[in-house]
Write a structure and sequence with these properties.
Radius of gyration: 38 Å
Low-confidence stretches: none
Number of strands: 10
Distance between the termini: 35 Å
Helix content: 10-25%
Largest sheet: 3 strands, antiparallel
Strand order of the largest sheet: 5-10-7
Mean pLDDT: 90
Number of helices: 1
Length: about 160
Amino acid sequence: MYDLILWKNRRTEKSNTYAIKENDDGTITLTPVTGKIIEAGTSFNQVNMNNMEHGIVESMIIADIASVQLRQHQRELENTYFEIGSVKVSSAEEYPFNTATVTAAIKTIRHTLDYIVIPFCDDVQQGRAIRVKDKQLNGFKIEVEDCPKKQVTIKYFILGGML
């Protein structure tokens, strides 16, 4: 974890005061004349500067991890999208040849086939099977085994498939 350094300015009795010395080659050397040091200030050195660099890198790593987690949550939220629909199905055949299949279109096209369809029907007698088959990105088929001659409504929920 980053260790915070509270930086302090160096304060002296005389600021911006210099002694002038003329050199033999015609140049001038300025030497600071600070007078009494009131406060030493924080050292500008390798330890303090590297501490700052480590803090910056740590912040970047945390931001990257947060970005990855945010994207994952967004994907999970997109995959909770659901759709409700219904189709009507009937069969003109007699048992055991009265298995009927109907195609159901999906309103919002899925990005993957990794979606779940939960079909149910209030009108079909218990023991009759309702199967989901041939899933596609834009639809699927619902098969009703031992389908009645009278038209029944199969309702369904579609969950996921948006990743």
